[in-house]
Design goal:
- This protein is α/β, with parallel strands linked by helices.
- The chain has two domains: 191 residues, Alpha-Beta Complex (Spore Coat Polysaccharide Biosynthesis Protein SpsA, Chain A); 79 residues, no CATH class.
- It is built from nine helices and eleven strands.
- The strands form three sheets. It has a five-stranded mixed sheet with strand order 3-2-1-4-8, with helices on both faces.
- Helix 7 runs antiparallel to helix 8, helix 7 packs parallel to helix 9 and helix 8 runs antiparallel to helix 9.
- It is globular.
């Protein structure tokens, strides 16, 4: 599709952590021409030297790129907080969140649709249908959601400003998308899935493991700890607003099934169970700061 003019300014932000450079560059090229600027935040070790490779491959769009990164893994929360600050300073209307391994099928059409709704209907969060994550029955072009993943989501800067900065200690990597989603809902703003538009993305590297061949993302000790801790904090922070479906999701998927997968399917059972219990303990004891 030819490049076009838009009525809003959109800032994109993509986080890198030891990516496949060729794949990540190809994915970025699928949307960079249809946004006004892109923050590429590199959490990879300095020896990876990704900056030269990416800037060379994206030379045609070099004026749109803001490169950040110093060889330390700052997770994701600081990235979004920086993007929000940058969007305020340079007057961006919308912020697009992306993972480096997510692949668009029709970004230009998605942006057009989201922009039109934003200008006509006002503040809302927009998501595509994420192949590899979403499994709900599509019944219309626009369906409300309760939760979303970061990648592919479009957030109005004004809405993020209302919510405020992300608690980087509580949600450095995991559950920050849930925290934003539940905060948006608490304020009465909708999360709208534009089901006609597809993003290909998978969470972790799902596989069947163990004697019972259980399906598991097979996260290591650190991610087991991080996910358990942050999701426990998120549940405690928003529990008064959770409906029965979401409460069951947190209990079964985040706690019970994670426990079962570690015991029956995953390797490093002792290490991961210890990480799981540590995350649960710290999540329960974490002091939640109300805004």
């Amino acid at each position: 599709m030819a490049q076009q003019e838009y009525k809003t300014k959109m800032l994109g932000v993509v986080t890198l952590y030891n990516p496949n450079p060729e794949e990540a560059v190809t994915n970025i090229k699928r949307y960079i021409d249809d946004i006004d600027a892109l923050i590429i935040w590199d959490n990879s070790p300095l020896e990876k030297n990704l900056k030269a490779t990416f800037l060379n491959e994206l030379a045609g769009s070099i004026d749109k790129i803001i490169w950040k990164g110093n060889g330390k893994n700052y997770c994701i929360a600081p990235v979004i907080n920086y993007a929000l600050s940058h969007s305020k300073d340079y007057h961006y209307d919308l912020i697009l969140l992306m993972d480096d391994d997510s692949r668009w099928l029709d970004f230009q059409a998605y942006r057009n649709n989201a922009e039109d709704l934003f200008l006509r209907k006002g503040l809302a969060v927009f998501t595509p249908y994420v192949q590899g994550c979403d499994d709900f029955l599509i019944t219309s072009d626009y369906q409300k959601k309760k939760l979303f993943i970061n990648s592919g989501t479009i957030l109005p800067s004004e809405l993020l400003t209302i919510i405020g900065s992300i608690d980087e200690d509580a949600f450095p990597l995991d559950a920050l998308d849930h925290d934003i989603a539940l905060s948006v809902t608490a304020l009465g703003f909708p999360i709208v899935c534009l089901t006609k538009h597809k993003l290909i993305h998978s969470i972790g590297q799902p596989q069947r493991l163990g004697f019972f061949h259980l399906f598991t993302p097979n996260y290591n000790r650190f991610r087991t700890y991080s996910m358990t801790r942050s999701h426990t904090i998120c549940y405690r922070k928003h529990k008064k607003l959770l409906d029965k479906e979401l409460k069951e999701y947190y209990f079964y998927e985040i706690l019970l099934w994670k426990f079962v997968r570690i015991i029956l399917a995953e390797p490093d059972k002792y290490g991961r169970m210890k990480a799981f219990l540590k995350g649960l303990y710290e999540g329960i004891r974490y002091k939640i700061i109300r805004k």
